[in-house]
Design a protein that fits this description.
By secondary structure, this protein is α+β, with helices and mostly antiparallel strands. It has helices spanning 57-68, 118-142, and strands at residues 15-21, 26-33, 45-51, 79-86, 95-102, 109-115. The chain contains 2 helices and 6 strands, in the order βββαβββα. Strand 4 (79-86) and strand 5 (95-102) form a beta hairpin.
């Protein structure tokens, strides 16, 4: 799907990443489907944006692996948008990871964390989203 400034592709296994530069400071990595095997009825779409820096393949794979594990907590996750930012390069704790996921019934869940590395910030944001997903799941069960 192509919208004004972002590309989204569905996840298939195995994964291959394509690097796309939309603007001068914005680079997006998307998943390229290389085989047509669906694992579940709902396939999560993951979009990774990097602002003010270029991401390497290891970071993209790390973020994709962590975000795809959220499927174990809530089965109906429709898509996830991950934004990685660098605030001021010369300061400590300058890496920000923002994760926004869409689930059916709710508009979205959001977590934003700041840390020394992108991996640490992503882990903290994933932990916050796990708590939010378990709360949503408990609310659905209690109804």
């Amino acid at each position: 799907m192509l919208s004004k400034s972002c590309w989204v592709m569905r996840i298939y296994l195995p994964r291959r990443f394509i690097r796309i530069q939309l603007l001068k400071n914005c680079i997006i990595y998307i998943n390229k489907p290389i085989q047509e095997v669906k694992l579940k009825s709902v396939i999560m779409e993951i979009m990774i944006n990097s602002v003010h820096f270029t991401t390497d393949k290891k970071l993209v794979e790390f973020v994709n692996k962590k975000v795809s594990k959220l499927d174990t907590f809530y089965d109906g996750i429709l898509n996830a948008e991950v934004t990685l930012k660098v605030l001021k390069p010369e300061t400590a704790r300058n890496k920000i990871s923002e994760i926004k996921i869409s689930i059916p019934g709710n508009s979205y869940l959001f977590a934003k964390k700041q840390a020394d590395t992108f991996e640490e910030a992503t882990d903290l944001a994933i932990d916050a989203l796990k708590k939010q997903l378990t709360k949503v799941k408990e609310k659905l069960r209690s109804k």
